[in-house]
Design brief:
The chain is α+β, with helices and mostly antiparallel strands. About 30% of the residues lie in helices and about 25% in strands.
């Protein structure tokens, strides 16, 4: 069940689902409420054994993808 929820979340994120929609759907399953929470840090290891970090800004509703190996021609900026 846990793996199914995580997989569904990843697919929706890759498909470009709005962050507010994702928050409404998944926050209750993964986090207890915090009134002072500013960022969520999500370390991710891909299938090639490479690690990167997703940082979610609660206030700004922005997801940052931090990757030391990411090349500028592979960057896609999304809004909303």
């Amino acid at each position: 069940m846990l793996l199914t929820k995580l997989y569904g979340h990843c697919l929706q994120l890759l498909e470009g689902t709005n962050i507010e929609v994702l928050a409404k759907k998944y926050v209750a399953d993964w986090m207890i409420p915090y009134t002072t929470l500013k960022y969520i840090y999500v370390p991710i290891k891909d299938i090639f054994e490479h690690w990167y970090l997703m940082v979610i800004s609660i206030k700004d509703h922005i997801v940052y993808h931090l990757d030391s190996c990411l090349q500028s021609e592979n960057i896609t900026h999304r809004i909303g």
